[in-house]
Each structure stands twice: as C-alpha cells, then as structure tokens.
Write a structure and sequence with these properties.
It is elongated, with a radius of gyration of 46 Å. 62% of the residues lie in helices and 2% in strands. Helix 10 crosses helix 11, helix 11 crosses helix 16 and helix 16 packs across helix 17. With 470 residues, the chain is an all-alpha fold. The protein has a two-stranded antiparallel ribbon with strand order 1-2. The protein has 3 domains: 35 residues; 83 residues, no CATH class; 244 residues, no CATH class. It is built from 19 helices and 2 strands.
Length: 470
C-alpha cells in the first residue's frame, strides 16, 4: 500500500508545480515580441550600455580633436613654406595670444623705397592703437616690412595670416582681363562672315575638299606645306579677274590676324572630308557584316585585311565562301557606295558641282576610298565595331601603297583601268540620274529629223495662209 500511495503522490506534485507561475525567459535577438510585452533589462546590463555609449563618445571626441590638430599642423607647415622667403626662421619666437605683430615678427632690412600702399582709415586707427605701447624702433621696422613686402601679418596664436592689399586684387582682376583678351578669336564661318570674308573662305573651303579628293589626300606633314596648300585654295577662289571676292581677298592679305583665321578655317576642311568619308565607310562595313556572329566577323575582317591581293577591293567578293576575283581589282561594291554617298548626294555636293573634274576619277580618289575602307575593316578585327582614328601618320603610307598599285595597273593594263573608270562613272550616273548607260555615242539616231522638219514647215505655212486671208 505504501508503494501505491507514493506513486499516486507524484502526479499531484507535478500538477502543483504546473500551477505555479514560470519566471520570464529573455528572448533571443530576432524573435518577434508578443503584443504588449516588455523586455526586462537588469541594472548591470543598463550600466554597461551607458558605459559603452560614453566610451564611444569619448573616442569620437578624441578623433575629432586629432583631426583638428592635424589640420592645424598642415596649415602651419603650408604657411611656413610660403613665408620662408619673406620671414626668417622664427622657431625661437613664442606665439602668445594677444601679442603685437612687432613682438612676434623679426626685423626686416628695409629695401629701396617703393610706392606706399594706402589702407582704409579703420586699419590705420587699429595700427596706431596696437603700436602705441611699442618702442619707436619696432614701429619703424613694421612699417618698413609692410612697405617692402606689401603684406601685413597678424597672429591669432596658432597661425600667421597675411592680408593682401587692395592693389593686389586690382592687379589680379587686370591680369584676368588681359588673359581673356589674349584668347584666340574664333575661326568659324559665322565669325568670318561678320568680318566680311565669309563667301571667300566658304568657297576656298569647298575647293580644298576637291583638292583633297582629287589631287592630294594627305598634304603635308610640314606646316609650311599645309599653309601653302591652303593659300593656293584661297587664291584659286578669286582667280577670275572680275570676281566680286577680290576685295575680300585684299582685306585678308593686308590683315595678318584675319589671314591666319581664314587659313585655319579653310584647313579644317581636310580633316572634315576624311572624317566624313571614314565614318560612312564604317557604316557600310557594319551593314555588310551585320548578319554574322562576332567570332565570324573577326575572322572575315582578318581575312579581308591580311590576304594578299586585298580581297575587300576586288569584284565578285563572297564573304560566306571567302572567295573573290583577283583579276577585278578596285571593282568592289563598297568603293562605289562610298564614292556616291560622299561626293554625289545632295545638290551642293562637290561631285555634282565639279562634275568635269570628278569624271576623270583620278588615282588619288580611288586610293583615298580604298584607305578609308581598310580603316573601317580594321575596326572590326575584334568582332565588334571599334573606332580606328583616320590619322595621317598611320594611313598616309597606306594611301601611298594604293597609289603605287594603281600606277602599276595603269602601266601593265591601261585598257582595264580605262574600262574601270568608264563603268564606275556610268554606275554613278545611273545612281544620280545625270548619266544614262550608252548615253555616250548616242546622237539621236532613233529620231527622224526629216519628218520633224516637214511637220514644222507645214505648221508654219498654215499660220501664214491664215494671216493672208484675214
């Protein structure tokens, strides 16, 4: 019985324990608080928190003071470097707040007399009050340093501050005005029109485009050669004796500054023409390779540039099979597209205004087109478009290379070169609408001129008879 009673008493004790209130358990960080519940913090934890905050504030204040001290030291070092040429080493001078400048600054040997600097009345009164208790020698020394250096010095116990006189500020403003006046005047067409020579330089600018395309793609590199090239274009603009531009030419010739501006504007046409041409070449090349993957583009561009016989210039070019006809040099479609888009688009294009000169299609023009195309393909070697600048030191030798090739073709196969120019000009004419194929040697043989004359004779006789009857 005793065992049973002991066993039955255990459940009762457990039930009694469950009825007693359990102590609050501190929740770990990140657990959600029950609504309305408060976290109890012991006094020891709160005191430690306050000590931690006080320590942080103390460290922040120490860091701030350290930064201020470093800045002051840096200012002192900078001021010491600036004043070494004027003020000797003052390491033995104690900086005291409220000290007079005459007691701090050393004596300066008086130089030759200079024009005295005028200060405001308030400054003069302050100097008189501050120097009243000093000896006469010290006052004279400060006046001499002020007169010799043009700079007053005062101290606040930490650093020496120099006050620049008003005349220095005026001189600085004067220098600013002078520097602005020394800027180069603009060399734009609008500014030259205001000077009364706009039409002349505009025509010379256009003539330079024509000369760059047909005669010399890269004039120079000497500045004298470039200036001579530009001046020839300006003179050619007024080659007619009765030209209305003659007065403008005389004005430019007599004014050296205006002449330099005019020549600078005209010379800018060289880089402008070459830049426009290579930009259009990049656009055509990107359109030609747009259906390929970047890896294939890099391989094709490498093949076009590095293969002998220059495939990108030859006719019957097939990029998929990497084949071309080496016997058709300079018959690439890209060259014709570049020629038309650059020189024969728009009513004011050079190819239409100077059609007789462009009809000859000289070697310089064909070589310039080939050089621009090569520059565009070199920008695709990585598989994605990269802008390769069309600089004269890099591509002038390539232009000369194509000139030599054209001279060789003209020497060994003159009939091929003549046929090349005829076919290219016929294609340009068809594209622009000013020349039709087989237009040359077409004397109107399909027309019956006798019938046309008979019709005109009959109409004239009929009109005369009607007038007689009336």
């Amino acid at each position: 019985m005793s065992r049973k009673s002991s066993k039955s008493s255990k459940p009762k004790e457990k039930a009694a324990r469950s009825l007693t209130s359990t102590p609050p358990v501190a929740k770990t960080r990140g657990q959600k608080k029950a609504p309305g519940s408060k976290v109890q913090v012991s006094d020891n934890q709160y005191e430690e928190f306050l000590k931690f905050q006080a320590q942080k504030k103390k460290e922040a204040e120490l860091n701030r003071k350290e930064n201020v001290r470093k800045k002051v030291d840096a200012l002192l070092d900078e001021e010491r470097l600036q004043t070494t040429s004027v003020v000797p080493d003052g390491s033995d001078i104690d900086h005291i707040d409220g000290a007079n400048p005459a007691d701090i600054l050393p004596a300066v040997v008086p130089p030759k007399k200079k024009v005295s600097l005028d200060f405001s009345d308030e400054d003069a009164e302050n100097e008189a009050d501050s120097d009243g208790n000093d000896e006469g020698g010290d006052v004279g020394k400060e006046d001499e340093s002020l007169e010799s250096t043009g700079v007053r010095r005062r101290t606040n116990g930490l650093i020496q501050v120099k006050d620049e006189p008003k005349e220095d500020n005026a001189e600085r403003k004067c220098r600013r005005r002078i520097s602005k006046g020394d800027r180069k005047p603009p060399t734009t067409l609008a500014s030259l029109k205001k000077d009364g020579c706009g039409p002349l330089v505009d025509l010379a600018h256009q003539l330079l485009h024509v000369k760059i395309a047909l005669e010399t793609a890269f004039p120079g590199p000497s500045v004298d050669v470039q200036d001579s090239f530009v001046w020839d274009c300006i003179k050619e603009a007024v080659k007619n004796p009765g030209s209305p531009l003659k007065s403008m030419f005389d004005a430019i010739s007599q004014d050296e500054a205006l002449k330099n501006r005019a020549m600078a504007y005209v010379w800018s046409g060289a880089s402008q023409l070459r830049g426009e041409l290579v930009r259009k070449a990049r656009e055509n090349v990107a359109f030609l390779l747009q259906q390929m993957k970047p890896k294939d583009i890099g391989e094709v561009a490498t093949w076009l540039i590095s293969t002998k016989k220059d495939p990108f210039l030859c006719g019957e070019l097939d990029l998929k099979t990497k084949t071309f006809n080496k016997n058709f040099p300079f018959r690439a479609v890209l060259l014709r597209q570049l020629l038309i888009s650059q020189f024969f688009q728009g009513a004011g294009s050079e190819g239409l205004l100077y059609k007789d000169l462009f009809q000859k299609l000289p070697d310089n023009l064909l070589a310039l087109l080939a050089t621009a195309a090569e520059c565009a393909f070199k920008g695709m070697l990585s598989g994605s478009p990269v802008v390769i600048e069309f600089k004269e030191p890099v591509f002038q030798p390539r232009h000369q290379y194509y000139m030599l090739k054209l001279a060789e073709y003209r020497k060994h196969s003159p009939m091929y070169m003549e046929k090349l120019r005829q076919d290219l000009w016929a294609e340009i004419g068809e594209a622009c609408g000013f020349v039709m194929r087989n237009e040359v040697d077409d004397s109107g043989s399909e027309l019956d001129f006798e019938a046309m004359e008979e019709y005109g004779r009959l109409q004239t006789n009929t009109i005369v008879s009607d007038v007689t009857v009336a």
